[in-house]
Amino acid sequence: MAVGVDPAGEVVWSIGDPSTVIFPRSANKPIQALGMLRAGLPLDGRLLALASASHSGEPFHLDAVREILALAGLDESTLQTPPSYPLEPHAHADYLRAGGKRDPICMDCSGKHAAMLLTCVTNEWTIDDYLDPEHPLQVEIMATFTELTDGPPSVVGVDGCGAPLLATPLQQLARAVGRIVQSPAGSLGARLVGAMTAHPEYVSGTRRAERELMEALPGVVAKSGAESVYVAGLPDGSAYAIKIEDGGERPLYAAMGRALELAGLDAPVLRARPTILGGGKPVGEVRTTF
Does any domain span residue 58? Predict the structure, then answer.
């Protein structure tokens, strides 16, 4: 499924039914980060970008997570992310070669969790139950989500990192991110957008598709989510969201590239297509049919 919305949030293009409810997974992170800013999260720049990230687990990501925790007077033991290895294969391999073991800080959502903890400390909220849907932190995030998607979540589940997982129709995900990107100058939304677009390597990693897209198209905010979700907000407030129904990631970035081409954008990264190997040699590529 794919959908494009204009700056007013109206559907202008779609494939499949854009009103289908999905779990956006980590594509919700810009919304969650804005909710934390509204609750007083005292971050900016690269550390704010990391608060919206599914990071690769590269050393500079882990160091930045520790910086956020230090601002809260906390250490890694307070993170409630499940123990994990770095997300990105090269970072994973480097970590193993260095003798690393599964650790909560390596989980790709640890930047968001560190920001959640800092938000709690800033407000003198409890930290041992910060993932509880009834915790003031999650209530604040839910309120921002409800505002930006024009309604409460269709379903509330539990994400892979343990945080509440808020479901919404695909078109509402696009609408929400489009609204964040067109936030007025000086607003919290503009602060978040500025952080993400200035530091795309903190939003994802040095070898990731979101970074490549955001660097090639200045002002675009791009965020992927598990089970093959991808949302991109354009500087004018229009936005595109994609969900591959079987959760397979291979066509995801090619599909978003084509959608943004149809929106009138142009950059070599939009025409990149995953290569299919046979016997270790290129024998084909993934191509879009729309």
Answer: yes
